[in-house]
Write a structure and sequence with these properties.
7-stranded mixed sheet, elongated, 3 domains, Immunoglobulin-like, 3 helices, single chain
Length: 475
């Protein structure tokens, strides 16, 4: 009986061993991904290789992929959610291998660590080493959020106003070489700031801005386009209504050319003078500047910044509705300008900026020593000056109009007497309309009361003469 039991035991062991996968220990799994990081909407390639390192063929081998752990953040399909797939059962001969590749798409940003599951089975049972896990990180690409615009939507013809845009990088990568451009038909762009950036970090803000001047009336559309090397372009638009000027703007009277002529060099030597620029200033009914206004000469050498609310008054006491800039030349001066109307005053003081060429600075002179001087009371007086050696600008504050020049501290150009007119341009226009012979006296006017008195005396004299004749004849 013991022998029978022993024989049956060996038979059962033999039958059980035959039911196991043949040489399963000879199968090995190798996985790889084309990248460990992708952006949403893009993909990686997963490659699975199963090798038979044994001495006999292995049949019933399947390879499965399962993305269920990613909760929809990954998919086997570019447009729909597809989480699982497997190969047909196949046989791997000894010393050979089979390879299967899948394309995995990133649907939403996140870190998917060990959430790509690979199962290799033989006859429905995981082989040794299965399952295997792979990881991938999905990030949002660099991109602009929808821009928001900050500006006024109704202005008067001739008004100057600001047009600012705010956007953010909502991606996980920095935006490279961002540029903001503006299309503003019916407006002139007088200034701009922050319209380019070499790099905008993730979640960082980009705030380009412009100063516009309304040059034609009607309903206008201003459009801003944001573009970059690695982010899709976006646009934003605002409709602005431009009405006729709310307060009359008189036609500016041209500033008279200095008596020494614009192209003459004062004091001898040096180059000729420059061009003249005239610009309107938006003034409200109270004589204050409506909005911060930046006025720039045509050649860009000089600019004036007049803050909103500044009271600009001419010599005659009226509001200043325009400003003129005339470039002049003085010996040893790097830049010189006359501004008009002559004698105009500003409360508070306005900012004057000169933009110079370093090549114009005399040899052995220090750029930081440059100063802006004002010519008044017969001499050049130095103003508090800020020098930016990077932008090559000199800045100061001025309270009234008179000649200004950029020069070295020790420079003091000689100016001939009478070079600068002291006449208000408006007054000078009236003078030119007078009779050309200044010494010819105007015709005398007869007083109405004097004429009446003379008439009465004549009548009394006539009556008296008549009475005298009457009594003379009667005698």
């Amino acid at each position: 009986m013991k022998k029978v039991i022993s024989v049956l035991t060996w038979v059962l062991i033999l039958l059980f061993s035959c039911s196991l996968p043949a040489a399963a220990s000879g199968l090995t799994i190798t996985t790889s991904t084309s990248s460990s990081e992708i952006t949403t909407g893009s993909s990686i390639t997963l490659t699975v290789q199963v090798s038979n390192t044994g001495t006999t063929s292995q049949s019933g081998v399947t390879i499965e992929i399962d993305l269920s752990s990613a909760n929809g953040g990954l998919s086997l399909n570019a447009t729909t959610t597809d989480l699982q797939d497997q190969t047909e059962s196949q046989t791997i001969s000894a010393g050979n291998s089979v390879t299967k590749s899948w394309t995995i798409y990133g649907f939403s940003a996140g870190s998917y660590a060990n959430q790509i599951q690979i199962n290799v089975k033989q006859s429905g049972t995981d082989i040794t080493g299965s399952p295997v896990y792979e990881s991938v990180t999905v990030k949002d690409p660099a991109r602009f959020t929808t821009p928001t615009i900050t500006t006024t939507t109704a202005v008067d013809l001739g008004d100057t106003f600001t047009f600012n845009v705010t956007t953010q990088n909502s991606g996980d990568y920095a935006i490279q070489n961002a540029t903001a451009s503006i299309s503003a038909s019916g407006f002139t762009v007088e200034d701009s700031s922050g319209t380019t950036s070499t790099s905008i970090a993730a979640d960082a803000i980009f705030t380009p801005g412009w100063t516009l001047n309304a040059t034609s009336s009607g309903t206008k559309t201003v459009t801003v386009t944001l573009s970059a090397d690695n982010a899709a372009s976006v646009t934003a638009s605002e409709t602005i209504t431009v009405s006729g000027t709310s307060t009359p703007t008189p036609t500016p009277t041209p500033t008279p050319t200095p008596t020494s002529t614009q192209n003459q060099v004062v004091g001898g030597g040096g180059g000729g003078g420059g061009s003249s620029t005239t610009t309107n200033v938006p003034i409200d009914i109270y004589g204050k500047v409506k909005s911060t206004t930046i006025l720039r000469s045509d050649d860009g050498k000089a600019s004036l910044t007049i803050e909103e609310g500044t009271v600009a008054t001419s010599r005659s006491g009226s509001s200043v509705s325009y400003i003129s800039m005339v470039e002049v030349s003085f010996e040893d001066a790097i830049i010189a300008f006359e501004f008009g109307p002559n004698g105009a005053t500003f409360d508070p003081a306005i900012e004057l900026e000169f933009r110079y060429d370093p090549a114009d600075i005399p040899e052995n002179a220090d750029e930081e020593d440059l100063v802006i001087k004002v010519y008044e009371n017969g001499s050049w007086n130095t103003l508090d000056t800020t020098i930016d050696t990077t932008a090559h600008t000199a800045t100061t504050k001025v309270e009234h109009f008179t000649p200004f020049a950029l020069m070295l501290p020790e420079t003091s150009p000689a100016i001939p007497a009478g070079y600068f007119t002291e006449t208000n341009p408006e007054e000078e226009t009236n003078v030119q309309e007078k009779s050309p012979t200044a010494t010819t006296p105007a015709p005398a006017k007869t007083s109405r009361n004097g004429a009446t008195l003379v008439g009465v005396i004549l009548i009394v004299a006539i009556i008296a003469a008549g009475i005298g004749v009457y009594y003379y004849k009667k005698r």
